[in-house]
Amino acid sequence: MSAPRGQFTTRFGFIMAAAGSAVGLGNIWGFPTQTASNGGAAFVVVYLVLAFLLAYPALMAELVIGRHARANIVTALSSLSDKPIINSIGRATGFYGVIVASLILSFYTIVAGWMICYLFASATDLVSADTATQWLTTDSIDRNLFSSFIFAALTLFIISSGVQNGIEKWSSRLMPVLMGLLCLLIAYVVAQPGAMEGLKVYLLPDMSRVFEPSLIISAMGQAFFSLSLGVGTMLVYGSYLSKDDSLPRLGAIVTVVDVGIAFIAGLLILPAMYVAQHAGVTILDEAGNLIGGPDMIFQVLPALFNTMGGAGGFVALAFFALMTIAALTSSISMLEVPVSLAVERFNIRRPVAAIAIGSSIFAISALIIFNFGTLFGFVIDLTTKYSEPLLGVAICLYCGWIFKRNLLLKELKEGHEDIEDSLFWKVWPLYVKVICPLLILATFWHSLS
């Protein structure tokens, strides 16, 4: 007898969980710097359009397969056809998705651990515990193992508690806190000298760049990957949805929330960068580009906080709390992918599965920490640059070509009876069948060049 499956009990819980999965560290630091490097508001306009033309249809593919199968990614993809070879390919694709999600979580745990270190360091700095602050902000194997373990334990605790008492409960708490912190930090930062210059870069478009191929490809990649697509997280979350819920409406809400938070994050990060410049902090690299990614988070912004006097410590504490929450809401969705497989396919009790799999992923994180120069970049490229786009294509192809049209329509009618007469049904099947795979492959090809 298989283990009982959980289910989201409210639409709000699902939306917060799905948005939390999508709104990760990459969204908060990646989207704003992508915007600054690609024509400011021109990039925002293209991104918003492509989020609904590309990311939303691909999100719907995962949600509809997940809810139809009511199962983990392996079982879901292997059950869409009555042809053994197609089922075998689906099973293999699902297992590879589980491996990729686990590997992503292994390096994500390290990066999230750095956020925890700086969060703790903000607290120790406020009480003048200089030795502790120095240890927490100095890169070392011991520090990285400690912080990665703390983050892994938090993720494991939430997942071991199940869908309702773990994922839904904590997402419903953490996401409102994240959005509240984001708004408070924006209100403070935009009042600082130099912030208006950052807002101009972010909000005033250079419309001559809207049709630049590189800008379109960058926006396309950001739109697709910002929704946490390609490794089955949304498929698994979709499997926990009620049949009474309208998938097109829920998918649209999740997309709006995700792109909305990404946009709002830009209202914090870009002004903060120019406030830092006004305070004498270097925000451009040697090539003249805005510093992005980890260097922005761990070099530019801490330098800015140090120039803010007594308020700087509290701003730093709020900022790294924000980043830690963003990391945690994403990590729980990634751990759920392998845990759901172990619980359903191998009938392992959820707490046992969570501990075993979470510990194994932490062991991979430790291996990366001990071989950082060799493995960190390799694992990131293998998973996010190469594997994730191809898995996204595979899921779209399974939804568009393998999922029988009458069963697909029947599933979409659950919670949305008049779907057959809607514009969505007239357009989406073609999108997921042809256009989404081609656009994802175009993004993938561009990333390799």
From TrEMBL:
Main location: membrane
Domain of life: Bacteria
Listed transmembrane segments: 12-29, 41-65, 95-121, 145-163, 175-195, 215-238, 250-274, 311-332, 352-380, 386-403, 423-445
PANTHER family: TRANSPORTER
Taxonomic path: Bacteria, Pseudomonadati, Pseudomonadota, Gammaproteobacteria, Cellvibrionales
Entry keywords, A to Z: Membrane, Transmembrane, Transmembrane helix, Transport
InterPro entries for this protein: Na/ntran_symport, SNS_sf, YocR/YhdH-like
Protein known as: Sodium-dependent transporter
